[in-house]
Amino acid sequence: MNTIGATLLRAGRRFVSSLPALFGVLVFTFLLMRVLPGDPAVFFASGPNAGKEEIEVIRRQLGLDKPLPNQLVIYLADVGRGNLGRSMMTGQAVAKDLRERLPASLELTLTALLIALVSAVPLGVIAALRPGSLVDHGVRLFCSLGVCVPTFVSGLLLIYVFYYLLGFAPDPTGRIDIFTTMPPQRTSFLIIDFLLAGDFEGWSAAARQLMLPAFTMALFVIAPLARITRASMLVSLGSDFVRTARSVGLSWWRIVVTYALRNAILPVITIAGIVFSTMLGANVLVEKVFSWPGVASYALDALLVSDYAPVQGFVLLMATIFVIVNLLVDLLYGIADPRATVA
Amino acid sequence: MARDLLLRVHQMSRQVFLVPDFETNEGTGAMSFEMSKRSLFAAAALLAVTLAAPSAHAQSRAETLRYVTGATVNTLDPNIPGSTREAFALSMSSYDRLVSFGRKQLNGKWVFDLDTITGELAESYAVSADGLKITFKLRPDAKFQDGSPVTAEDVKWSLDRCVSAPILGKAQLLTGSLTSPDQFKVIDPLTFEVTLPKPDKLALPNLATVYPIIINSKLAKSHATADDPWALNWTKENAAGSGAYIVETFKPGEQVIAKRNEAWNRGTPDKPAAFKRLIIQSVPEPATRANLVERGDADLVIDLQASDVQSLEGKGKLKVISTPQYNAVTFISMNNTIPPFDNVNVRRAIAYALPYDDMFKAALFGRGAPLYGATWADGKPPSGGYPIPQPIKLDLEKAKSYLKDAGMPDGFSTTFSFNVGQAATAEPMAALVKESLAKIGIKVDIQKLPDAQMSTAINEKKLPFFIEGIVAWLPSTDYFYRNFYTGKQRWNYSSTDNAELEKIAQEARFEADKAKYEAQGKALNAIHFDQMFQIPIWQAAQDAVMQPTVDGYVYQFTRQVDYRNLSRK
């Protein structure tokens, strides 16, 4: 009990100490957006008759007529109050947009990560057990393919085969078939909400919708995870304690899983944390191909039209998630290896 | 047994989710005789779901229009600065205007007709003999979606708002001499009068455009605040109109779902719209949109890639209606104030050095109406319309001699820009332009700009040579010339400053005599060709791809679908 309390305390302290970094990210993004060429007011004043006056109106609405330092102070004050500004693109508050879209991205990314881990770790272990064998080469080929085929290609390919040709998959348009009624919103994770509502038909519809994009993303990240697992397993299988375990005649399972894998898992956790953060922000292609209403495609659309507020909000959100994920990874270290602590 | 059960579950799940037809009944029944009691119970439960779901599903599906688009509806009030074209299209169905455009056939395809104005909320209208007063009689049976009657007061408030609030409608109505609330008068609850300072033929058509929506003024006023007297923040997310469809779900960037307004009778046959439900869904990937419509999951899409349209048309399973966007023009534009494009001979040289046919095939797969390659008898424009095909074609010898006249026989270097959003068509065009101009010694550097950056650079008049397009809701010759060839504003891409052109265009605006107007149009076209301010190259087709059962599609001035036109055969 005491150790958990101490861990939490240390985790809290770690989080607080990362706040200056978040602040830096906030200011940097703010300045970067304004340095980039492209005037949002001109872009959004694009009706067939929009002239100078309309551009000025939008500029005033966005507060772009004020000097830069003033804009920054106003923005920081707003963020402090939890107001991330308003998106011109969707016409909604950025905080609301992100709140609605983050669960979609998280649901997809977590599922993909789960699929990736469940397939990558055994693949890596098998490859490490028989290095140089046919199995090892097979795994290597699979990983290379996964990594070198861009996600939008594999995504379109999967759609073509499973939706267009075979008809197994539902139409790739977002989180849920448009004719299905949404469950009452509790966690915003559809597959959990449907379970809570006891709507199994809906659950299955949501899960089926999730499969293709999740596999597309998983394919891309299986490679780094499997390679790291393999490398790290090789080291740990060749170490003294495994030789000792073998010599005292422990069962195969105990040697590989309890001793070797547990010792090999630390780098895998580290990579998984990084992979997760990257996937969340960089899965924009998958989101686009599957019309997934996530945060990454939202940010890309905003960036293309120089819509400042959503991009700033997105970067801040990603930075925060990155901090939290790293913290979680550190906590997991403690579980995987009791010698490691959250420093 | 376990295998049996697995098989059964598999088949049932297929029935529940994939085949919404009526064979399910038979299939499940035939299988059930060898089931144990427990699985029988489970099967019965599933069967109940199976039977109930698909029939309701199939029925509602037939009465639903599912429209997929790469863009998104971002506001429910089309007047909000930044509104997208999809937002315009939705507002045509969620709101009514006083009047609307009729339709006509152009080369066998239905398009909107600027010259036929029919009543929408107005039962009838009358223009006074001097053309200065338009009187509207409102439909006595028209009701807003909340059930309250539409009165002349609502019309007055809505139009006042359109010309006074800082919204998009203001600049649009200006083009029809509608500028001040003083021009709008309530005569009695069902009679409304508009006064004009001059007889302006665009006044009435302007009231049929997207912006002058008639809003439930009581409802909107109850949401107005001191900072926001016209309730813009509220109408952005709430529709308060009397239109054919009632918005149920509005998720910007994802979808809009609307149900039919049963009380609406403003369509031509005086009955509600045909589809019970309307789903407008954003699907960013064009290949996915093509798959959806080909598989029959989507009913209609208008923004596919030309190559996909080509192949879908070839397969012959779907209905493809291609209409040249006759109120839009794509240009290769030159800034007439930036050297060397300030030299008319340089502009002429470019006009004869472009590989028009190759560009048309590579960018549009030949889908559209070309504006090049015409022959003008004795070098005079054959018509006063705009745009008309120009007598220009690829002729490198001619181009070289113009370059010599310009004093640049060895050519020069320049940049050629287009925006990322147009890349699918503009990228192959740019490559061809570069290749062809190299032959007369002009070195072109291709510049691909993000959309916002491109609009900014055009607005600041910084680009020398680029691809851009224009669109006019009310496509008349003087309107095009006044808006796209005069003034220091964004839409004057070529930065044209020609006193004669401006004078004729301004005169033409209020010219009531048709023959004189035609002569003015010809004069304008002649100046345009002589000075070659920019090069109109084509009018791209709008390719509407739909299920064969979808009927009634009309090309609209918004370049979007008017959902009220559509029905299922």
UniProtKB/TrEMBL annotation, chain A:
Chief location: membrane
Keyword vocabulary terms for this entry: Cell membrane, Membrane, Transmembrane, Transmembrane helix, Transport
Record-linked PROSITE patterns: ABC_TM1
Coiled coil (residue ranges): none
Membrane topology listed for this record: Multi-pass membrane protein
Transmembrane segments: 15-36, 108-129, 141-166, 210-228, 264-286, 314-336
Span of domain ABC transmembrane type-1: 102-333
InterPro entries: BPD_transp_1_N, MetI-like, MetI-like_sf
Entry superkingdom: Bacteria
Location of this chain's protein in the cell: Cell membrane
Listed PANTHER family: DIPEPTIDE TRANSPORT SYSTEM PERMEASE PROTEIN DPPB-RELATED
UniProt record similarity statement: Belongs to the binding-protein-dependent transport system permease family.
Protein's name in the database: ABC transporter permease
Organism taxonomic ancestry: Bacteria, Pseudomonadati, Pseudomonadota, Alphaproteobacteria, Hyphomicrobiales
